[in-house]
Amino acid sequence: MKPIESLVELDKPSHGQRRLRACHECDWVSALPRLHPGEVATCPRCQHVLVRRHYRPAQRSLALAISALIALFISVSFPFVSFTMKGIGQQIELQQTASSLLSFDQPLVAIAVALTIIILPALYLILVVWLQLTLLFSEPQQRHRQIARTLKHIHSWMMADVFIIGALVSLFKIAGLADVELGTAFWSYAAFAVLLLMTMRSIDDDWMWFAIAGEPRAPVSTQTGQPAAEQGLTGCPTCGLINELYTQGKQHCRRCGEGLHARAPKSIERTIALLLTATILYIPANLYPIMTTTAFGQPVDNTIMGGVIELIHHGSWPIAMVIFVASVLVPVAKLITLTWLCISVKKVKNSSQMARLKLYRITEFVGRWSMVDVFVVSILVALIHAGQLISVTPGPAALAFASVVIVTMLAAITFDSRLLWDESSSVKQPLRDERHD
């Protein structure tokens, strides 16, 4: 069977026993129905999407990925934005938003910006093209499993859409001071951000893994309508396959090779440690200036809240609200919410699991948007260099705040939402003492 034909085979009613999935958010075992293009299968307990079927998934994601790569190539080849103030002009290219930070001894912030807006998106798209071409025209090899795993792992760290919002905020900030002109790269990068999101959404993970490595049957004793952990099983967080767990040695998925655990090891302890780290970093992120604006030789330090207040004074309420929500409200809410969820795992049993899971989903989704302020700083630092007339330099809070965003994202990833559904006796270790063929 050629890989491109696997979509037909995947949903045939006669394809062996029922295909099963253990929800990665609540651990509930369900049987997958036969799906047509455009349909989704969701967990009956928490409504998490288990499978989303697409029409011609390889061709669709391949076309979108190639289009996105073309848009990205244009974005790094032409001017991104320019401004003119009192006869003095300046223009920048996209990559300068990261490289300019190196001139001010901010290499870690520069790396974070470059990775999230150019390097990781480009890597993701190249891997998508490589993988889908393989599935269309040849037989996949072992290395393609690692490629598919890599796609899953870098998914959350691409922030082209957040960068575009940061660019718009930056332009609003300087619109009253200078004449601003959007370059070709701005529009192509906006198109790139949309195409990247469409590419990510077009990936049919279920079909892709079936085409790469088939689907080994779930253990014959697997029961639907029960948590996987109570049966000595776990669902792979990367490819979705149900695997047995054993007491000896490290466990790896039979299909993709991902490490497996009934629950993420020391999830609560690691999450709390990351939250404490983020809380400590959040103090200098707010006390110290995130950037310094020098106008006519007079430096003015700008803290995060100071920037919000300044925007309000200038009547830019919508932009002030964006910065306040992304840079103040979201980080604080995320710290409080994740802390409460960690406590609730120990203190709250058998109640409000769905409400807590929804709160976790929101927290996980909005965390990356706090990078808006970091991108605003990177753009203004690269763009505004008009000698003694006006210039912008990054402040010490830039690194602290970027670290807060990254650490809180790691905290959300580290937290195992399946713990919200566990009763005190649900997960029993050791689970299995021997392997079953």
TrEMBL record:
<feature type="transmembrane region" description="Helical">
    <location>
        <begin position="108"/>
        <end position="137"/>
    </location>
</feature>
<feature type="transmembrane region" description="Helical">
    <location>
        <begin position="62"/>
        <end position="88"/>
    </location>
</feature>
<feature type="transmembrane region" description="Helical">
    <location>
        <begin position="317"/>
        <end position="345"/>
    </location>
</feature>
<dbReference type="Pfam" id="PF04403">
    <property type="entry name" value="PqiA"/>
</dbReference>
<keyword id="KW-0472">Membrane</keyword>
<feature type="transmembrane region" description="Helical">
    <location>
        <begin position="184"/>
        <end position="200"/>
    </location>
</feature>
<protein>
    <submittedName>
        <fullName>Paraquat-inducible protein A</fullName>
    </submittedName>
</protein>
<comment type="similarity">
    <text>Belongs to the PqiA family.</text>
</comment>
<keyword id="KW-0997">Cell inner membrane</keyword>
<feature type="transmembrane region" description="Helical">
    <location>
        <begin position="397"/>
        <end position="415"/>
    </location>
</feature>
<dbReference type="InterPro" id="IPR051800">
    <property type="entry name" value="PqiA-PqiB_transport"/>
</dbReference>
<dbReference type="GO" id="GO:0005886">
    <property type="term" value="C:plasma membrane"/>
</dbReference>
<keyword id="KW-1133">Transmembrane helix</keyword>
<keyword id="KW-1003">Cell membrane</keyword>
<feature type="transmembrane region" description="Helical">
    <location>
        <begin position="272"/>
        <end position="297"/>
    </location>
</feature>
<feature type="transmembrane region" description="Helical">
    <location>
        <begin position="366"/>
        <end position="385"/>
    </location>
</feature>
<keyword id="KW-0812">Transmembrane</keyword>
<feature type="transmembrane region" description="Helical">
    <location>
        <begin position="158"/>
        <end position="178"/>
    </location>
</feature>
<dbReference type="InterPro" id="IPR007498">
    <property type="entry name" value="PqiA-like"/>
</dbReference>
<dbReference type="InterPro" id="IPR005219">
    <property type="entry name" value="PqiA-like_proteobact"/>
</dbReference>
